[in-house]
Design brief:
heterodimer; A: alpha/beta; Rossmann fold; 2 domains; 5-stranded mixed β-sheet; two-stranded parallel ribbon; B: 8-stranded mixed β-sheet; two-stranded antiparallel sheet; 10 strands; 35% helix; 18% strand
Chain lengths: 271, 289
């Protein structure tokens, strides 16, 4: 999220950053075992999208705790050998977590980026402690194209394996990821303007210039959103509903920075 | 590509704009004085509505969680292929109608909504076959519809939009709960991915409706995006095959633009216009006029 980094730097905001993957329940090695076990037991829906593979309650607790006193526990998920080396902790391999640690002191706000920032289940309500809820939601065809590309080209999986993974995760995708977008304050949705009708065949991921961004404000008045200002600043943008504007794909960064600067200032002032 | 008995297949789910396509074709057929043999995809369902319910219950009992109207279990794939083959060769073949409701069934004695009429011969002297349904370009190990079709058109929404439409129709018109509709969508997903989606890689022209309002949660999206709230992406697999004249289209369709060398984007409200502009010359060429 480069736009956030830019706004934080310019506005001299010091964020405590939390990555969604650090709240996975299992390390990569154990996840593989758990997936096998689930399959053996006939659970066809076990995935990184749902409550069984994530620490929703711990995430809620972090948000609650930070909101009250600016502290809380976080850790890091180590994606690669490079990150393992950087962490410099004996005995860890890629796919492991670093030990839990206290958040750095004196941060101005907590910045969470991941799949579950607004999850509400019977056991956990993460959304209620969040002051600004942003959704970044591609249309599903596009999301599938991206996953297929990444997993087949970079990770060497067969297309069939990737399709099966997508289908396996569908249940939790629909039940845990999608419902979050109904409570988000602002959604940024990447909409391709090239044919994505067979996501499994599309030879290229649509480029940014081949997309438009739909930006929807749940309640534009809540943050005093000035649409005429945004429309004048962002070339070729237009309103598609009273609370929604469309900007060319290449203007996503500009649009985010304009919107976020305005809102983050309000959040800082309200402290 | 003038051929004696050409076949046009419009493949796509209802609600995606298939009715706009149908209207556009009807206009062009009328203006060009073309007499089509119309085939509706759902007349090749394997089961009538009552039988389908039983088949579904049985499949569920046997642990088949993917049984749906999208796949080979519930459709007469080889009969569709057979019809295409016969028509292409002779201009004849058998068809029937699926009666969606009692109103449609009224003229047929002894038949009710959800049943089929008996098979009958296609009238003689038609100029072409016009198939509209979900399976016009299916290719599996056992069947190959696509090889018999001379003009393959895909009408496809992005999935979010398709879900919104289904959820709307099923909850507001048919009284199902959100949850029940979502279960159906998930149950059909396997067949959708394996039998519906792959067709769109062989189609000659795809019309894809893309909403420009937020559809990130299709389940709560309260209104189906209107044509004015969407764009239509039109992709030609091989623009040269049909001598597509992009500058002409760009001129004729206000606010249209090219997004790739073979793709043009038009405002949602212009879908019908775009179709008629594109289809008329192709049809003339096809019939050797």
């Amino acid at each position: 999220m480069e736009a956030f980094a830019n706004v934080f730097r310019r506005e001299k905001i010091n964020p405590a950053e939390v990555e969604g993957e650090s709240f996975h329940r299992y390390s990569r090695t154990i996840m593989k075992e758990e997936l096998k076990k689930a399959t053996r037991e006939g659970n066809r829906h076990f995935s990184h999208f749902g409550p069984d593979a994530n620490l929703f309650a711990e995430l809620e607790e972090l948000f609650r705790c930070y909101g009250e006193n600016g502290t809380g526990q976080r850790r890091h998920y180590l994606h690669s050998q490079e990150e393992v080396d950087k962490a410099g902790i004996e005995g860890l391999i890629p796919g492991d977590f670093t030990p839990w640690e206290g958040l750095p002191e004196n941060s101005d706000m907590l910045f969470y980026q991941g799949l579950h920032g607004c999850v509400v289940t019977e056991d956990a309500d993460v959304a209620r402690y969040v002051d600004l809820k942003l959704g970044i939601a591609p249309v599903i065809n596009m999301e599938w194209i991206q996953k297929i590309h990444r997993d087949t080209n970079q990770r060497g999986y067969s297309e069939k394996t990737v399709i099966n993974t997508i289908l396996r995760r569908m249940h939790e995708y629909v039940h845990y990821l999608i419902p979050q977008f109904q409570c988000t304050d602002i959604n940024f949705q990447l909409v391709p303007t090239v044919d994505t009708s067979d996501p499994f065949f599309a030879t290229e991921v649509p480029a940014v210039d081949e997309c438009v961004i739909v930006i929807r404000f749940r309640d534009p008045e809540q943050f005093g959103i000035d649409f005429p200002f945004l429309l004048s600043k962002i070339d070729n943008s237009w309103m598609s509903r009273r609370n929604s504007m469309v900007v060319p794909g290449g203007k996503m960064g500009l649009a985010m920075e304009l919107i976020l600067t305005h809102i983050l200032r309000q959040l800082m002032d309200a402290k | 590509m003038s051929k004696k008995h050409p076949i046009i297949a419009v493949t796509g789910s209802s609600g995606a704009g298939t009715s706009t396509v149908k209207d556009a074709f009807e206009h062009v057929f009328r203006r060009e004085e073309v007499n089509p043999a119309v085939i509706e995809g759902d007349s090749f369902h394997r089961y009538n509505r009552a039988e389908m319910k039983l088949a579904m219950a049985e499949a569920t009992e046997q642990g088949n969680v993917n049984f749906s109207h999208f796949g080979p279990g519930a459709n007469l794939f080889s009969d569709i292929e057979g019809l295409f083959k016969t028509y292409g060769e002779t201009g004849g073949g058998k068809r029937r109608l699926y009666l969606h409701n009692d109103e449609e069934a009224a003229p047929y004695e002894g038949l009710g909504g959800g049943e089929f009429t008996p098979w009958e011969d296609i009238p003689e002297g038609t100029d072409l076959m016009f198939y509209e349904g979900l399976h016009g370009c299916v290719v599996t190990e056992d069947v190959n519809m696509a090889q018999h079709v001379d003009l393959k058109i895909g009408v496809v929404p992005v999935i979010n939009l398709e879900w919104i439409q289904k959820i709307h129709r099923d909850t507001s018109q048919r009284g199902y709960s959100n949850e029940a509709v979502m279960d159906t969508i998930l149950r059909r997903m396997h067949d959708y991915v394996h039998f519906i989606v792959p067709q769109f890689k062989s189609t000659d022209i795809n019309f894809q409706r893309v909403p420009v309002v937020d559809t990130s949660d299709p389940i709560i999206a309260r209104d189906i995006p209107t044509p004015d709230e969407s764009l239509v992406v039109i992709r030609f697999r091989q623009p040269d095959d049909f001598d597509v004249d992009f500058p002409y289209l760009l001129q004729m369709i206000q606010n249209s633009w090219m997004s790739r060398r073979n793709s043009i984007v038009v405002p949602g409200g212009k879908m019908g216009l775009a179709m008629e502009l594109i289809l008329a010359p192709i049809l003339r060429n096809m019939l050797g006029k």
